[in-house]
From TrEMBL:
Domain of life of the source: Bacteria
Biased composition (Low complexity): 177-188
Region span, Disordered: 177-197
Protein name: Uncharacterized protein
Organism: Pontibacter qinzhouensis
Length: 259
């Protein structure tokens, strides 16, 4: 073997598998790959006991499907006392060269924690949020199937600011009337119960996704299960796995008998 041939063989890289969003079986395989990639690279954040994926994780999912973000515009809508930018991002399917999705987003220095942000940072965050929003519009179910919440972290950051604003008048009402005060004291007790729930493990979710990928499972059954997979606790997940196994066994036996 010549030196040139040796160099070529060394430089040759393994082909990265790509997926087709139009084929549900392939996207379910992507969900398993995505769950592993996000976990290994820590591309998620835990917010109030739930895991939300960073925009980098959404971009990875899109790239495996051949769908890339293209910034259409970033508009300065600032006023004299506020730095504010709006961004729009389109999603381009590299196979068809067609736009398959879009997302709008806004970022302002009036948001909590962004008072001292420079203008370029506000504009950049608007773009980042728009990218996450665009991917969410078409890939939310895949992220959920991977075991994560179908909302980008950057969007939750904005939602958190809104909830913080709403909390102020609630406290005022509680000091004026006895009834709201009583209700407020019962809420923490209920909230404490939620963290105690043992939700389905990543291994259980992977097993459910693997079983859903069986040809005898209908698309409607897949969709229904995937939409609720993050709500399952360990016991219900175990029951779902056993039920899926039985359904698959019964249907495969029925097909064999018919043949």
């Amino acid at each position: 073997m010549s030196q040139t041939q040796k160099d070529t063989s060394v430089q040759r890289k393994p082909k990265v598998e790509s997926y087709d969003i139009a084929k549900s079986d392939e996207t379910l395989h992507l969900a398993v790959d995505l769950a592993k990639f996000i976990k290994e690279n820590k591309l998620y954040q835990n917010i109030q006991g739930k895991e939300y994926v960073n925009v980098e994780g959404w971009q990875y999912a899109g790239s495996r499907l051949g769908i890339l973000p293209v910034v259409e515009h970033v508009v300065n809508i600032s006023t004299d006392d506020e730095i504010k930018y709006q961004a729009k991002v389109n999603l381009l399917d590299l196979r068809s060269q067609q736009v398959v999705g879009a997302g709008f987003a806004i970022c302002s220095n009036r948001e909590q924690g962004k008072k001292y942000y420079q203008e370029f940072a506000i504009a950049s965050m608007a773009q980042t949020r728009a990218i996450g929003k665009a991917y969410r519009n078409i890939l939310a179910w895949i992220i959920r199937a991977a075991g994560y919440e179908p909302t980008p972290v950057e969007e939750m950051d904005y939602a958190g600011n809104e909830s913080a604003k709403v909390a102020v008048p609630t406290e005022k009402k509680a000091t004026m009337k006895a009834a709201p005060a009583t209700a407020a004291t019962t809420e923490p007790a209920e909230a404490e119960k939620t963290p105690g729930v043992r939700y389905a493990s990543a291994k259980q979710k992977e097993e459910i996704i693997r079983l859903l990928n069986n040809p005898v499972i209908t698309r409607q059954e897949k969709t229904k299960m995937l939409l609720n997979i993050n709500r399952l606790d360990e016991e219900r997940a175990a029951q779902a796995i056993e039920k899926l196994k039985k359904v698959i066994e019964d249907r495969e036996d029925g097909q064999s008998a018919a043949a």
